[in-house]
Amino acid sequence: MQWETVIGLEVHTQLTTQSKIFSGASIAFGAAPNTQACQVDIALPGVLPVLNKGAVERAIRFGLAIGAKLNRTNVFARKNYFYPDLPKGYQISQYELPIVEGGHLSIQVGDAEKTIRITRAHLEEDAGKSLHEDFHGMTGIDLNRAGTPLLEIVSEPDMRSAKEAVAYARALHTLVTWIGICDGNMQEGSFRVDANVSVRPVGQKEFGTRREIKNLNSFRFLEQAIDYEVRWQIERIEDGHKIQQATVLFNPDTGETRAMRSKEDAHDYRYFPDPDLLPVKLDEAWIEQVKAGLPELPEQKQARYRERFGLSAYDAGTLTASRAMAEYFEAVLAALPARGENAKLAANWIMGDLSAALNKAELDIAANRIPAKQLAGLLARIQDGTLSGKLAKQVFEAMWNEGGEADAIIEAKGLKQVSDAGAIEPLIDEVLAANPKSVEEFRSGKEKAFNALVGQVMKASKGKANPAQVNELLRKKLG
Amino acid sequence: MTHTLRSLSTLLADGKASSVELCRDYLARIQALNPTLNAFITVDADRTLAEAAAADARRAAGQAGPLTGVPVAHKDIFCAEGWLTTCGSKILANFVSPYDAHVIEQFKAAGMPTLGKTNMDEFAMGSSNETSFFGPVKNPWDTARVPGGSSGGSAACVAAGLAPAATGTDTGGSIRQPAALCGITGLKPTYGVVSRYGMIAFASSLDQGGPMGRTAEDCAWLLNVMAGFDVRDSTSLERVKEDYTRDLTKPLAGLRIGLPREFFGEGLSGDTARAVEAAIDQYRKLGAETVEVGLPNSRLSVAAYYVLAPAEASSNLSRFDGVRYGYRTPEYRDLTDMYEKTRAEGFGAEVKRRIMIGTYVLSHGYYDAYYIQAQRLRRLIANDFAEAFRQCDVILGPTAPTTAFRLGEKADDPVQMYLSDIYTIAVNLAGLPGMSLPCGFDGQGLPIGLQLIGNYFAEAKMLNVAHQFQLATDWHARAPQGI
Predict the structure, then answer these.
(1) pTM for this one?
(2) C-alpha angle with apex A88: A86 to A93, nearest 5 degrees?
(3) B164, B141 in Cβ contact below 8 A?
């Protein structure tokens, strides 16, 4: 039987506020346990939550960026359950009326483009951490993380492969960092993915029973976990079993998923509107103000790059993989004259030599050593014929390793392309005199012999002669 | 010891007494009578006298406010830094608060020393003060009887002159009903007027702190201290600070008093009905008019309340889990066992009953039928009041259906106990201000309370209406004898 995979993702993004969502305590990562937990965070008797407006503002940014409906009135609810790292015995989250509803995100898998619908995004507080090591026979509780603001982004089950799920997660990661609502740091847990996975026979309308893989903190694990889970589910069904709804964990060491709890012991969270917090009202002026502050978004930029610069979908996608990348590309263009014609050249160099150098050095574009103006200086010398492609690579290498402006490197290393007929003609004369056989072959109609002669001239010039000019002068001489 | 705040303020201002002297007198009286009344859970004379000395120093420095040096007792629901703050429960019997509630901050800013923390029903759940882990409070008028609840300790200590005034909280009548049963004056403000920050939550959408004193004037003075916007309570209302004494002396001519027909039907004891009727006559003599109004949905208020309040309480009390503070069972096998034993041992029967009711009504499949339905009733009840206030300025009726009942009389019958609050609960559901003031005594010499209900933010008006009554009568001036 042919099987189809169905995937929906729930992503917890930690928001970039200074303080917690309902208290004034800092959310900086890595502080000593319980030093960033105030009386509200540890849920002393009598304390009350006060909503951090910055968290709401970031949710508005996200809603606007995905073309969602922003609920002008949205409501915080209590999700009740007992756990030692949940100090109040309930988590404040949004349930029936989330701040963001609907919206969508485009992804690219290979050459195919696809739109993933987003169901909702809601604000909530994070729990603390239970520390099971270090304490013999006991559990330590660190409440520094308790109350950290999260935006949980829930997609529709629109993805049909692990690759699509990864593409969506990456696109979402790009977007939330792009609009500055999340630092995207997956090691520190700022961007955590839960994947709901099910399989069904191709052609079947109803979804299969899903299992939820919790807390995936890298794109690689996301892909591995889904691939494993899909194989496991298909095998179970083909062996005659039914899939039970369950929450599972992925073990990166074994590459396997394993059930944590099944639906039978699912909690009844007893949601109800939190009476300590008033419904959140979003006024139009505020939304307009947030909208005005939004940068051009990746999808908008991609469309512009394709239409205005004639770049391919792939190039446009790569150049907008991060805001830093796109800003670099645009800065290079801005430093070049007649931008439209330069786009392809700039794109090729950024995606080619520059990306390769960054990858080799394991650097992010944000840590790029070559300022945009410097790269533009190099490209300008290619355009005006000063540098051949080959020479340009040498200049780039020097620029990467030692720094400096293109002109200074060209000057210092004597890498300037020779376009002076007076300097090239004597070289041609020498080559023609030394290669009578090739001259003979060319004259008898063998075009290949001409290329050999060009090569000899280039060699004689130590690669500095302008190839186009060599071509032209040689034809004239052989004419 | 039947001083009013005004008389104490004058004594201090005239230099006829110091705060330390006043506090010594009250502490001596507490020492003598509290073993009988059990009105206080915690008394800390050293701390009180240190605060009194600071108040005297402030006065000497010429920085005294009108109430600087006047001591006050606080219901043990308010977190006060350095004070044991138990909320009447075993689960918090060892909890010393590391911070001050907004209300406590306000009293500190006014320079008013704390005389102690008063006894209360556990987590404010009760109408007789019998659910306290620290034992019941006795009614100073008859120590075989209950003082009402949940602010029973505050009511009893004011009635018996152990404190000139006290704070209370009112979720379904917990200021007004004990004020009525102990013969004092108490006011529950409009929801949002007094900050709930640091006031241990029972039912967040209903809880409201308020003053309890000998007179309406005292309540006005206390409310001036207690009220105020607090950014730490999202339900606190941002309003211009009011002087609640400003209208006390206004004459009542032309006042329209609404009499809800639902408050004068069956269930009201004869003595109470007669006393309330007499009060109405008194008001007519003062120039007020009366108009009959209807509160048709008020009969549903107890039912709605006993869905909503337990629902919120079941969640609010989840933090008492033995993990971070408070009581933890000494022996347990694992986490679940620790939770179960801690809460089974730490909470009393009434609290557990309400946690179970609340958990049930919020459960999947029952939520719509109970919680949502009760919220609808709540709106209907509020609409009734809105309609009534089109025809009148204040609403008047009894505070409680009966005078103080005997200890143990209703302890085993929760429904009878819940009906003690039948006239007060609707006010909390609507978020309106309400107060109780003495209006007579029954045949056994037990005080009877008169309830006034105002429109939103009509505290000054209600205090005016109560004060004018107290200028014309002396029910509030009587004190229990023989204790």
Answers:
(1) 0.91
(2) 75
(3) no
> B110 to each of A115, A123, B80, how far by Cα in Å?
63, 40, 15
Find the CB nearest B363 among A44, A49, A270. A270
Phi-psi region of B227 (alpha: psi -120 to 50; beta: other; left: phi over 0): beta
Q: Residue A71 has what pLDDT?
A: 98
B201 and A51 within 8 Å at the Cβ level: the answer is no
Residues whose CB falls within 8 Å of the CB of residue A386, separated by 6 or more in sequence, listed in order: A410, A416, A417
A395 and A431 assigned to the same domain: no
Q: Which band of pLDDT confidence, cut at 50, 70 and 90, is reported for residue B106?
A: very high
Instruction: Please tell me chain A's helix, strand, coil percentages from 3-state DSSP, rounded to the nearest 5.
Output: 40, 20, 35
Same domain, A362 and A434: no
Helix A406-413 vs helix A389-402: angle between axes, to the nearest 10 degrees? 110
Cβ-defined contact of A82 to B198 (cutoff 8 Å): no
B245-to-A397, B4, B424, B467 alpha-carbon distances in Å: 83, 14, 24, 10
Per-residue pLDDT tens for B340-369?
999 999 999 999 999 999 999 999 999 999
CB contact under 8 A, A270 and B314: yes
- Tell me how many domains chain A contains: 3
B89 is annotated as an active-site residue: no
B211/A285 Cα distance (integer angstroms): 41
Q: B151 an active-site residue?
A: no
Of A47, A78, A84, the CB nearest to B323: A84
Report the alpha-carbon angle A48-A53-A57, nearest 5.
145
Coil, strand or helix at A367 = helix
What is the average pLDDT across A248-268? Answer: 83
| Contact assessment for residue A278 and residue A50, using Cβ atoms and an 8 Å cutoff | no
* CATH architecture of the domain covering B5-254: Alpha-Beta Complex (3.90)
Q: What is the pLDDT of residue A255?
A: 93
Number of other residues whose CB lies within 10 A of the CB of residue A178: 23
Q: What's residue B281's pLDDT? A: 98
Q: Which run of H or of E encompasses B185?
A: strand B185-188
Q: Are both A13 and A73 inside the same structural domain?
A: yes
DSSP bridge partners of B78: B199
CB atoms B196 and A277 under 8 Å: no
Q: Which domain holds residue A9?
A: 3-288
Determine which one of B9, B127, B150, B154 is catalytic: B150
**Band of residue A387 on the pLDDT scale cut at 50, 70, 90:** confident
How far is B2 from B59, CA to CA, in rounded Å? Answer: 23
Q: Are residues A103 and A123 in the same domain?
A: yes
Question: What is the CA B388 to chain-centroid distance, rounded?
Answer: 25
Distance CA B460, CA A160 (A): 66
**Domain CATH for A459:** 1.10.10.410
B250 annotated active-site? no
Asked if A300 and A363 sit in the same domain, the reply is yes
| pLDDT band (50, 70, 90) for residue B388 | very high
DSSP-assigned letter for residue A26? B
Min Cα distance A51 → chain B (Å) is 8
Domain boundary among A233, A260, A288: A288
One domain for residues A321 and A350:
yes
For residue B288, name the pLDDT band (cuts at 50, 70, 90): very high
Judge if A206 and A302 occupy the same domain.
no
Say whether both A245 and A301 belong to one domain. no
* A48 to B200: CB separation less than 8 angstroms, yes or no: no
Residue B121: what pLDDT?
Answer: 98
In whole angstroms, what is the distance from residue A35 CA to residue A134 CA? 18
* Residue at B3: amino acid letter: H
Instruction: Work out whether strand A211-216 and strand A246-251 pair parallel, antiparallel, or are unpaired.
Output: parallel
Report the range of poorest mean pLDDT among B259-268, B308-317, B327-336. B259-268
